[in-house]
Amino acid sequence: FFLSFSFSRQTTFQDGGEEVEEGAVYNVTLKKVQIQQAANKGARWLGGEGDQLPPEHTVRQYETSKIRAIKAGTLEKLVENLLTAFGDADFSYISIFLSTYRAFASTKAVLELLLDRFGNLETSSHGEVANLNSFESEVVLRAEIASVLRAWLDQCSEDFREPPDHTCLLKLLDYLKNNMPNSDMESKVQNLLKQFQNQEVETVDGFCSTSSADLVDGEELEISNPEEFSSFQDHVVAEQLTYMDVMLFKKVVPYHCLGSIWSQRDKKENKNLAPTVRATITQFNTVTKCVVSTILGTKELKIQQRAKIIEKWIHIAHECRILKNFSSLRAIISALQSNSIYRLKTTWMCVSKDILLMYEELSEIFSDHDNYLTSRELLMKEATSKFANLDSSEKENQKKSQKRLQLQKNKGVMQGTVPYLGTFLTDLIMLDTALQDYVEGGLINFEKRRREFEVIAQIKLLQSSCNSYCLIPDQKFIQWFRNQRHLTEEESYKLSREVEAAADTNILSPKSQKSMVKRISTLFLGTDVITSPKEHTPKSSPVGGSSGESTDSASVSSCEFNHSETEDVCVTPISSPEDPLKKGSGSNKCSVFDKGSGSDKCSIFDKASGPDSGPASDKSSGSVTCSTSKVLPVYNRQNGGACIIRVSMDGINDSVYKSILITNQDRIPDVTQRALLKHNVEPDAVEDYELVQVIAEDKELVFPRDANVFYGMNSHVNFDFILRKKA
Known about the structure:
alpha+beta; five-stranded antiparallel beta sheet; 12 strands; 39% helix; 13% strand
């Protein structure tokens, strides 16, 4: 008789060390695959059950292959690796490079290297094809370049948008005409060029921006009309907010979110940098302002009427949750926790118990515990799911949720997921702060780019999921939304005091010494935290703060907006013993960093990076070998001889913090120089500045000229520093 064979495979990976070439360092991993062959037919005769045979009747074979992933290299080597990565079994390299190269090179530089150096068949010394004859070399090299170009156009076509000339796209078209005439790719590039030329300079849709320029002459911004707002059904408002969020999020260019790019937005020459990210932030803040204006815009409302508006916004937030729109959901919750709304105690007392429970549950989604672990896990769980998972701890709310969800399912249309973009921006800024750009020998640290790509890939996945939405714009609501008058923090607080003038023992005026007001933009900006000058709170805050709370939770006293601060709005997550909302009151403290809770599971930086990402390197290290530690430095915690501090400039940018990575080797001159560079100040006169740590509102720690900052700092308070000119 004939025996048929079944195969089982077992794969193991083994670290193969490093390979060093001129201009490049590679990580080597050995992939060992064990193939076990077993005779199925006649197994019972041989004493086995099913596929299980005695060892003497199995055949084991082993296959070993080498995976070579570039760890660091010159730009030339990184571009060359685009053509060899597939052969080295580094299958994700092309996507990683295309998603992150803008952090260290321009589109023009990469395209010139790819086409002029490696695409020139006469002069190319491409190693993989060196042993082939001329014709075979041409075929192989042309196929490799075509594969890279195709991936580039599919994944990152926005890289070639350079109005009005589109120089790089024309260069690419010329190359294709000469080397791949009449190909599909040539047609694709021609169509892309026509598309760019037919469009005006890229501007993000203006439905989320409200300014006098958007209005017809003589038209004024409206003070919110409660009756008109009440006429919109809750699910309609949620759907329209989701529609606007989806349209903007799908337009986000992922590389705009990279820490090295987003952190440069404050420079004067970069006022138009990352417009797709700015548009998303503006929409978030517009939703928040709309919530505040609808609640406070009409002073004549009775308390019960105002409570009904709050209830309506909570219902809208719940509808956003059903639609998996975490951006508007968080914007609404943040607005309800703002100083001017949260202090309306009498109004909140009129909100029904069931609605308060719903509000508390929605607030818990954005609890800052373990670096927002709840929202992170929920986002990843529902990223590609067809519908929201609405398990509620409150039975009545769960019944309502399931009923609404069933209506969605009956429509037969899947839903995407709109994330709160600030989480990703924070992670990318932290990665940029913690990992160095270059390693020994001036090589580009590509391990850093692999770590960044882990975050970028999540953004792309969610953007893809947004294609599942099928929402139709309601022009009546969008027009109403556009025309809403947005109150400043001062105006909203004044109106709030007029509505409920009772004395506040725990909630202070915007002009008082310790306002717990926070700009929404700090949720997005991550390491660039905006605070009011001279206002710093110790770790153990006496006002509504828990032990270990960072000044990410307590800050600004004024939100007077100017042309450079149109992305900012004030909210205040404040708790007090008399507040009617005990559980929800501290659920959204807006801290963007892990504050030393003791958990090692809370952050993207705490996980192992996997075979493709490799270990992290220390930004101040000069070694090409990256640190083997899986936990990167974080704010407010000294960890492994390193930590992240935040430094503001006294008298210049004293309302903006910049994050600086320091190690136990750094002294005052080094830290001062890096802080000046971060604040875009010429670091020529380092000796003219002194560095001080804020201990309390009226207490500072002044460092001697050559002090070691790491060992000299007070680790029991926030790691907040001020750089000021010496008297």
